[in-house]
Write a structure and sequence with these properties.
The chain is 40% helix and 20% strand. By secondary structure, the chain is α/β, with parallel strands linked by helices.
Length: 272
């Protein structure tokens, strides 16, 4: 795949396959293709996904997503693409920030998740991160909330993100990252494998929701480390590639496509 690498229009050939994590026992033992397993899991939990998210984020997810979008430089009137939009959790916060003159599009491969979106202003499209059903340079801002671990190939996805952004357009990828300390990893494991499923059981969530938390923890543990993600963004041609960390495990990856656009401001520099 050829991708512009600078404002001069020079192109380079994007690197090959970079999965976010190796095959996991959840689906590899059963001989199920990864994309089939992941989509089937999200289809099953779609009706209760937002209830599950409230348990996992302790009711603070909406505020955090809104603040992360602001830190990344999203301003009113922008056209936003939310990749892996799911039920529209991140897209709703983007709509609140871009205002009535802005526009937000949501792309997701799961019909079940898209059917749960209740925001009439959100335009929905079915598609994957590696093959976005949109023209070149069609959006000012691209975001993705906690879906990086579910895509197939980071290099192809990041090249697509570059393609659909206007020159100067900004990128925000939210993800849960494996803590660096032993105690941090133990706490995250207990939280996702014991505490959250226990809350879900009391709230009447299905067995599939427990399977999803198990899969979440597996993918967090096995995900490629942050330096690999940062380097893959740079390889796709992005500039100002940075990572901000909240609560020791919430990563905010930000970057900018070379060029200038009128709907975004430069966020303050963050440490990688």
């Amino acid at each position: 795949m050829l991708t512009p690498s600078s404002e001069s229009g020079e192109c380079f050939r994007a690197p090959g396959v970079l999965p976010p994590h190796p095959p996991l026992l959840s689906y590899s033992r059963a001989g199920i293709q990864r994309e089939v397993y992941v989509q089937g899991l999200f289809e099953e939990v779609a009706p209760e996904y937002e209830r599950m998210e409230r348990f996992m984020a302790l009711g603070r997810g909406s505020r955090y997503r809104n603040q992360a979008l602001q830190r990344a430089g999203l301003l009113p009137e922008a056209t936003v693409l939310d990749v892996g939009t799911g039920t529209g959790l991140l897209a709703r916060e983007a709509l609140a920030l871009v205002g009535p003159e802005g526009r937000v599009l949501g792309v997701d491969p799961s019909p079940g998740m898209l059917s749960q979106v209740r925001e009439p202003r959100l335009r929905l499209l079915r598609g994957s991160a590696e093959a976005l059903p949109l023209p070149d340079a069609c959006c000012d801002f691209l975001c993705m909330g906690y879906a990086l671990r579910h895509i197939q190939n980071l290099h192809v996805a990041f090249a697509e993100f570059y393609r659909v952004l206007h020159p100067g357009g900004r990128l925000l990828l939210l993800e849960v990252t494996r803590p660096t300390s032993v105690w941090g990893r133990a706490l995250l494991r207990a939280y996702l494998r014991v505490f959250v499923p226990l809350l879900g059981r009391f709230a009447g969530c299905s067995h599939a929701s427990n399977e999803l938390w198990h899969y979440y923890h597996q993918t967090i543990e096995a995900c490629v480390p942050p330096p690999v993600i940062l380097e893959a963004l740079r390889a796709a041609g992005f500039l100002e590639v940075q990572r901000r960390v909240e609560l020791r495990c919430l990563s905010e990856y930000t970057a900018r496509r070379p060029g200038k656009t009128g709907h975004l401001e430069s966020p303050p520099a963050q440490e990688e």
